Amino acid sequence: MNEVRIALVGMGRMGQALAALAPAHGCRVVAEIDRSHGSAHAVTRETLRDAQVAIDFTTPDAAPDNIRACLLAGCPIVVGTTGWYDQLPTLREEVLFAQGTMLAAPNFSVGVAVFHRVVAEAARLLAGLPSFEPHLVETHHSAKKDAPSGTAASIARAVHESSGLELPITSVRVGSVPGTHEVIFDAPYEQVRLTHEARDRRVFAEGALIAARWLVGRQGVFTMQDVLSAPAGGR
């Protein structure tokens, strides 16, 4: 396995988890950038230290600037920060125009990427049966800022695209729950219940490292669905 040089942008809980798991995934952390440490830790070609890929887990207000900084530095970026997606169409165009590379996803769990497809297919099959009413309940830790979560919103989009159905969302913020998404298709005499439950935040760090390795050598704008469709080596 060829070693991949990565820069971590944001050294909160996710940044620390990435640093701890990186060696097991064939990644070497060459830079740790956290703006809370001062302007010297802004994202630049110098602070990226020749990283092949940057991974951003920061804040919604910081992520767009970090993406643009990596684009200017010629460094591909994996973005795990959520809450900035109103700017995603503009940033997607900027990355494509500059022939840069970005992979953004609201959730880096490989299981969630599969969950999207399973839910979308279930919605497609049940769309012609009006007796089944869909609903999504998403639960996260009380410190999570966005509600509904980016993952919940993307699941709702996937359902609508596959079936035309609207998927109402109930958001729960409590305790230290890493993330649970439950889609219910309820009918008078039966119920279909599909659930993805993250047991540890490290699952998101692991997925981000898988995505970072996958991104090396690619150009364009991607999501975790692209990683699922074209595993490493399947270019």
Number of domains: 2
What fold name stands as the CATH topology of the largest domain? Rossmann fold
CATH superfamily of the largest domain: NAD(P)-binding Rossmann-like Domain
Number of helices: 8
Strand adjacency order, main sheet: 2-1-3-4-5-10
Q: What class, by secondary structure content?
A: alpha/beta
CATH architecture call of the largest domain: 3-Layer(aba) Sandwich
Q: What is the molecular shape?
A: elongated
Describe this structure in words.
The protein has 235 residues and is an alpha/beta fold. The chain has two domains: 4-104 and 202-229, NAD(P)-binding Rossmann-like Domain (Rossmann fold, 3-Layer(aba) Sandwich); 110-198, Dihydrodipicolinate Reductase, domain 2 (2-Layer Sandwich), CATH 3.30.360.10. Helix content is 36%, strand content 24%. It has eight helices and ten strands. The protein has helices at residues 13-21, 45-48, 63-73, 88-97, 110-126, 150-163, 202-215, 224-229; strands spanning 4-9, 27-33, 53-56, 77-79, 101-104, 133-140, 169-173, 179-186, 191-198, 220-222. The strands form two sheets. A six-stranded parallel β-sheet has the order 2-1-3-4-5-10, with helices on both faces. A four-stranded mixed β-sheet has the order 7-6-8-9, covered by helices on one side. Helix 6 links the parallel strand 6 and strand 7 (169-173). The longest helix has 17 residues, at 110-126. The radius of gyration is 18 Å and the shape is elongated. It starts with a strand and ends in a 6-residue tail after the last helix. The model has no long low-confidence stretch (mean pLDDT 92).
